[in-house]
Design brief:
Length: about 240
């Protein structure tokens, strides 16, 4: 059944009113709102921030080997959260400006920087977060008010190695992520309606121009065709 009000301005207003009424029936259904989930390196066994910390607690500089790191799932070929750093990247992290010298650094870091190409570095960056939109589903659908919640955790680690043995380790991160973002736009539906009406107006103008050009082409008289010569005329 067609919506009341026709296809003009009143029709658009009527359709918007019906949409608002239908959305009002869904006012408390926040479960219908979209959500997203971001998890780096699924299957590495880290369900929470403390799990990652416990893994790094098992690393002892001067003793833990690269093979043992592999058993801890800290291998770039197995764990997408682990990346390999180049020597210049390690330099940038520990000596960001000329005011920092080798004497200011840990002994393991100094040994790694001096070793240059013989030193390997693993950078661990694991993120587990989930984003959901809460609140009134009708207001969210009409873009009047949106409330987005992001929760999770982030873990960062650095491992320096030389000759297959760990020289240095460092951990950092955010054990608890909780962010709330609110976006309010009271003119959202009106702006959408204005855009729709403007689009319809432009579409009508384009259609009018197209009909004009098509009509002019159709009214042009056909070119006069030369009469065909009969066989009798050829024999003369």
């Amino acid at each position: 059944m067609p919506l009341p009000g026709g296809t003009g301005y009143l029709g658009a207003v009527a359709r918007s009113s019906i949409l608002i009424f239908l959305c009002g029936l869904l006012g408390g259904c926040s479960a219908m709102l979209p959500s997203s989930k971001e998890v780096a390196a699924n299957g590495n066994g880290w369900q929470k921030y403390q799990d990652a910390e416990q893994t790094f607690d098992r690393i002892t500089p001067g003793k833990t080997t690269v093979a043992e790191l592999r058993e801890l799932n800290l291998d770039p070929t197995l764990n997408p959260s682990v990346t390999v750093l180049q020597h210049w990247q390690v330099m940038q992290r520990f000596i960001p400006n000329p005011l920092v010298t080798l004497d200011d650094l840990d002994a393991g870091v100094r040994e790694c920087l001096v070793a240059k190409g013989q030193c390997r570095a693993y950078d661990v960056n694991h993120v587990a977060s989930q984003t959901t939109r809460n609140g009134n589903a009708a207001l969210d659908l009409l873009k009047l008010y949106r409330e987005t919640h992001t929760a999770g955790w982030r873990f960062n680690g650095l491992i320096l190695m030389k000759d297959g043995v760990v020289l240095y380790k460092l951990t950092a991160g955010q054990p608890r992520i909780h962010q709330v973002q609110e976006k309010q736009d009271l003119l959202g539906p009106l702006q959408a309606l204005a855009s729709k009406l403007k689009l319809d107006e432009v579409r009508d103008q384009v259609a009018g121009l197209k009909n004009t050009f098509t009509g002019n082409k159709g009214d042009q008289p056909a070119a006069n065709e030369a009469p065909a010569l009969g066989i009798s005329a050829l024999r003369r």
